[in-house]
Automatic annotation (TrEMBL):
Domain GDP-fucose pyrophosphorylase, residue spans: 2-258
Family annotation (SUPFAM superfamilies): GHMP Kinase, C-terminal domain, Ribosomal protein S5 domain 2-like
Family named by the database record: Belongs to the GHMP kinase family.
Domain GHMP kinase N-terminal: 580-657
Protein name: Uncharacterized protein
A single GO molecular function term of this UniProt record: fucokinase activity
Alphabetic keyword roster: ATP-binding, Kinase, Nucleotide-binding, Transferase
């Protein structure tokens, strides 16, 4: 801007004024200061003009013919609300209303707190009001109330019901009186006038309707107003005001002080003509003997800093109430409302510590681990905002020993104490952006702890019954298929699955013509636990050997977690491992596990393996179970292992065939499995067309998961919409299977892949995009397995027997040297158990 002018020339430039008019010295000085600010902030910024082809102009009346009716119309009938989906129109914006039944839908409320005792009639507007006291206030229809605070109403003695007449404008202003000293110069004053009053109309004593042209006050001709109140011209204007200058703007109407009595709302309502309030006989004398101001004087005395501070403070008071209601789901709040914009505003205004205290309070007082987890994640968002996009990446380690005490408390279920310890430690990490980001990582780590606790609520759906122990030496074996997810994945992921609800349609399949995952166990005479995995043998002879079960990369961690989840032994315990094994099994246990799936395949290997291991351990320890218990046990086990994860993997493989798994958006987390009624012909046609392609790329689901959870907790609108679409698509896919419509199934797979890319941007390697583009015309649908990013891709061909065609097409694509192609056979049975 102003690229062809020097700073001095710009700042001293003259103001455009009407012909033959001149700016005063004060105006010129103010203009120069304003131009200096513009130069400082905008000089060097490139500006261009753009034609708004579909724009329209909404005209306001001129300043000499303005009434409150124009403002009222804009707030009730803003033309933007009719512009379709481009705008979200709401009549209640950033407000807390304790009794929503008292607010008509056709009224507008902005940035206000309204207590139980406030009621409004239709088509009224309230803005920037904070009314939570004991006084009953009823606002008439078609009225405007702005800037009113509880202190304006409370000084009445005794309190009484207040009714504002229809079509009245009641306003409160923060003013600064320059002739007063100290804090007394800061005052709050109320004004009142009628919606149809023309405040600049010259005073006349003509009696008649205001629409006939007579000047008015509070929607009645001046003569009627004066007859009602006893007020005279001399009360309103002194002798220095000529008759042709007398108007509502310069009439001294509004009392500010009285030497011995309180003046305020009663006098204002008396001016407005409220017939319901008890007006004492001294009101006129009290009004006359008070120090009164006119609109003109009030506007000159407006304390803009105090006005903005009042609105800013009220905004964040409402924001804090909104934060609590949103996180706790109280008072009809939308739990899917995002709060990141509020946090960014709080940081910009320097009010982030108040927000952090509010979030601490929510996390400490809630009885829900799920709510506490979301709240800690929100604290991480505030800390991220405080870093102002500096300090490095949010995703990263959260293992600093300084946070260990707080993490330990949270792990043990002491949420209140743990959150308090987090807050104490946080205070030491606020000085630099890098420290803020590291603190945010630890809050996300703490949230993961509580997510695990929330998911562990699924344990109540695990039940086993006693059965006979198998003989020593007899092997018990379980073999499982892999699973492919056809639609709905990510909706099964905590916390999404228990906050939003999930649905996943998937199929159990063979890999390389066989079940790729399995486990076997047997009782042995030696009182020890022997683990065989990936060619290694681990012998556990002490309870301490089980301590690292929650460290996913520790040797045998998954198997150790299975042992504890299946409750083969008590841990921790004063009874040694040897003694427990002898007491319960008269010996020890030998356990083998295997998986022939490549690492990072996306076919659900680790969860399915956990299901197989849990199954054989329950059998070997004399516990009978059903599939529902096994599925929820795996969900619980993965939280013990600290790997997290959803429920679709075990549902897909431990329950055979085509099915849809469903969870509600609530805790405790329960997964319902619905096998689909699919004909033999549909199963055969599907199996003949399904091809499994290993992309040669190992996926990195953990990094994807961190970002997805962060976006979910931030209630990113795109993520919310995608979650709705994922669940809907899962049900559509299930319906298509039951109807035998494989083309529709393929459409659901394609849609699912697009949804996965929205959930986790970057999950599509470039080589995969080229592979899909080349195969597109020959397929009904394609998607990468699991979270994407690599691993396996499954392809539903239009015609059976297309494996040769797929191999030929992929062989011509650069970067597919490590890719493999095989038929993917449908598997209809549940987990195979044998002894």
């Amino acid at each position: 801007m102003a690229s062809n002018v020097k700073e001095e020339d710009f700042t001293s430039g003259s103001r455009s004024v009407a012909y033959a008019s001149k700016s005063s010295q004060a105006e010129s000085k103010g203009m120069k200061n304003a131009r200096s600010i513009l130069w400082k902030h905008l000089h060097g910024t490139a500006v261009k003009t753009v034609v708004l082809e579909s724009a329209s102009y909404d005209y306001l009346t001129s300043q000499f013919d303005v009434t409150a009716q124009d403002h009222h119309k804009q707030l009730l009938h803003c033309p933007l609300q009719y512009e379709g989906s481009n705008y979200l129109w709401s009549t209640v914006v950033h407000s807390n209303i304790q009794d929503k039944s008292s607010i008509p839908e056709n009224s507008t409320i902005l940035n206000s707190v309204l207590g139980q005792n406030i009621s409004i009639e239709g088509r009224s507007v309230m803005s920037h009001c904070n009314l939570v006291g004991q006084t009953n206030l009823h606002i008439g229809s078609q009225s405007i109330v702005s800037g009113l605070i509880s202190e304006d109403l409370e000084p009445q003695q005794p309190p009484c019901a207040i009714t504002l007449p229809n079509d009245i404008v009641l306003q409160g202003f923060h003013i600064k009186i320059p002739t007063l000293q100290g804090e007394s110069k800061h005052q709050h004053i109320m004004t009142v006038f009628g919606k149809y009053d023309h405040l600049l109309d010259i005073f006349t004593q003509t009696e008649g309707p205001t629409y006939k042209g007579s000047s008015s006050y509070c929607n009645t001709p001046w003569v009627v107003f004066m007859n009602r109140t006893g007020i005279s011209q001399e009360d309103l204007w002194d002798s220095t005001v000529p008759d042709d200058k007398k108007c509502s703007m310069n009439a001294k109407l509004f009392p500010l002080f009285h030497v011995s009595e309180y003046v305020g709302i009663r006098e204002i309502l008396w001016l407005a003509g409220d017939e319901n309030i008890n007006i004492d006989s001294n009101v006129l004398d009290r009004w006359r003997s008070s120090w009164r101001l006119s609109f003109e004087e009030i506007l000159n005395f407006i304390d803009l800093q105090a006005e903005f501070q009042h609105r800013r403070k009220l905004f964040f008071e409402i924001a804090k109430i909104d934060i609590v209601n949103t996180l706790e789901g109280k008072n009809g709040a939308d739990i899917n409302k995002g709060l990141c914009n509020v946090y960014a505003s709080a940081v910009a205004e320097g009010l982030h510590f108040e927000v952090l205290e509010t979030l601490d309070q929510v996390a400490m007082e809630t009885s829900s681990a799920g709510v506490a987890a979301r709240t800690l994640a929100n604290i991480a968002d505030v800390l991220g905002c405080m870093a102002r996009n500096n300090g490095g990446l949010r995703s990263g380690p959260a293992a600093n020993k300084s946070w260990g005490r707080a993490f330990h408390l949270l792990e043990n279920g002491s949420i209140r104490e743990g959150v308090s310890a987090m807050s104490e430690e946080r205070a030491k990490w606020l000085e630099r952006p890098d420290l803020l980001v590291r603190a945010a990582r630890h809050y996300e780590g703490a949230a993961q702890i509580l997510i695990r606790h929330a998911v562990m609520s699924a344990r109540q759906f695990i039940s086993t019954t006693k059965s006979e122990l198998p003989p020593i030496g007899r092997w018990v074996m379980a073999e499982c298929p892999a699973r492919i997810d056809l639609s709905g994945g990510w909706s099964d992921t905590p916390p999404i699955t228990y906050e939003h609800g999930g649905a996943v349609t998937n199929v159990s399949v063979l890999y390389d013509g066989k079940k790729p995952i399995g486990a076997k166990a047997r009782r042995i005479e030696r009182p020890e636990i022997v683990l065989h995995l990936e060619g290694r043998e681990l012998v556990l002879t002490e309870l301490s050997h089980l301590e690292d079960y929650c460290q996913p990369y520790a040797p045998g961690a998954l198997l150790k977690a299975c042992i504890l989840c299946a409750e083969l032994v008590d841990f921790p315990s004063d009874v040694s491992l040897r003694e427990q094994l002898l007491q319960r099994y008269n010996g020890g246990i030998e356990l083998h596990s295997w998986s022939q799936l490549p690492h990072g395949s996306g076919l659900g290997g680790s969860s399915i393996l956990a299901g197989a291991v849990m199954g054989v351990l329950w059998n070997i320890s004399g516990q009978a179970y059903d599939n529902k218990s096994l599925i929820h046990a795996v969900l619980h086990l993965e939280q013990m292992l600290t790997t997290g994860g959803g429920w679709q993997d075990q549902v897909g493989a431990l329950v055979g065939g085509v099915k849809i798994g469903v969870s509600k958006g609530e805790l405790p987390l329960y997964v319902d499995i619905v096998p689909l009624d699919v004909t033999v012909e549909t199963v055969q046609a599907f199996s003949d067309r399904l091809i499994l392609v290993y992309t040669g790329k190992t996926r990195l689901a953990r990094n994807l998961l961190q970002n997805v959870i962060r976006n979910w907790y931030g209630r990113n609108p795109d993520i919310l919409a995608t979650q709705d679409a994922l669940v809907e698509n899962a049900h559509d896919c299930a319906k298509a299977f039951e109807q035998g419509d494989l083309e529709k199934v393929g459409e659901c797979m394609n849609k699912y892949w697009e949804q996965k890319k929205k959930m986790a941007p970057g999950c599509e390697p470039s080589v995969v995009a080229r592979m899909m583009a080349s195969l597109r015309e020959h397929t009904y649908g394609m998607t990468l397995a699991g979270a994407g990013g690599g691993g396996f891709m499954y392809v539903l061909m239009k015609n059976p027997g297309g494996i040769g065609l797929v191999k030929e097409i992929l062989s011509q694509i650069e970067g597919t040297e490590n890719a493999t192609v095989q038929l993917c056979r449908y598997r209809g049975n549940d987990i195979d158990n044998s002894a």
